[in-house]
Amino acid sequence: MATTDDLKFQEFDEAADLLASSPDATTRSVTEGARQDHATLRMGADSEGEDDTDQTELLSGQKKSASFWTFQYYQDFFEIDTYQVLDRIRASLLPIPGKNFVRHHLRNNPDLYGPFWICATLVFTVTIMGNLATFLQKQGSSDYHYSPQFHKVSVAGIAIYSYALMVPLGLWGFLQWRKGVSPSVGSYSFIETACVYGYSLSVYIPTTVLWLIPIDWFRWLLILVAMCLSGSVLILTFWPHIRGDNKMVAVATVTSMVVLHALLAVGCKMYFFEEPQAHTSVPTAAATTTAQKITHTTKH
Question: Whose CA is closest to 89, among 8, 202, 190?
């Protein structure tokens, strides 16, 4: 059986010897440990307080926004996932009456990522399809030599991006002015207005691709359908804010929005896509000259 001496804990004796030999060192180690624990708790409390402060700012919507001149200010408008972009494109292609694009799809989170790439895609599709349509139309002509018209890319870029920027800016400024004249008029922010206009151009991308078909009446039919779809997005979005204004002013504003939207499509069709030439047996200038010489020789 184990004796009492075998069950005695030797570390107690060692701790007692250490305390007897240097009591000050032991006291200092205990004090320093307590100070470290206090400092750790204090740092944890400070960090927890900072987290609580940040969380409070986020929840209350009072988080300090970045300056207009900083990169962070614009970076916020490009933080969007693919599913949100696809949902907004789908909503612009198939507008549903009673569903406001801003309220049901933007949800106070407008972006510039989707409008930027929609405009860039439209620039390249209208240019490439226009060049390809011209090539297919004239490739059978003996006097036609194809040369890519790269300058049209710049023309398309200036026209489309100017429209996507200047028209929303003008509409936003006009509604801000009318809101001061008539308190019943509402308006969106400029970013929301530009976002709506950018997504409304998405319907013109498949339209320009289908313009490759060399049937002129079919191209005009596509313009009409695209104008109705994209114009419906604008009307359903902005009419609730405009209808409180004077009736003549409200109708004129909506009409101007639709007309400008249609002019963009008509201008692209007229400039980038030539009308298909009818295949008629019209003699060329050289053939006409040869026939005249033969006739003159025969008479003499």
Answer: 202
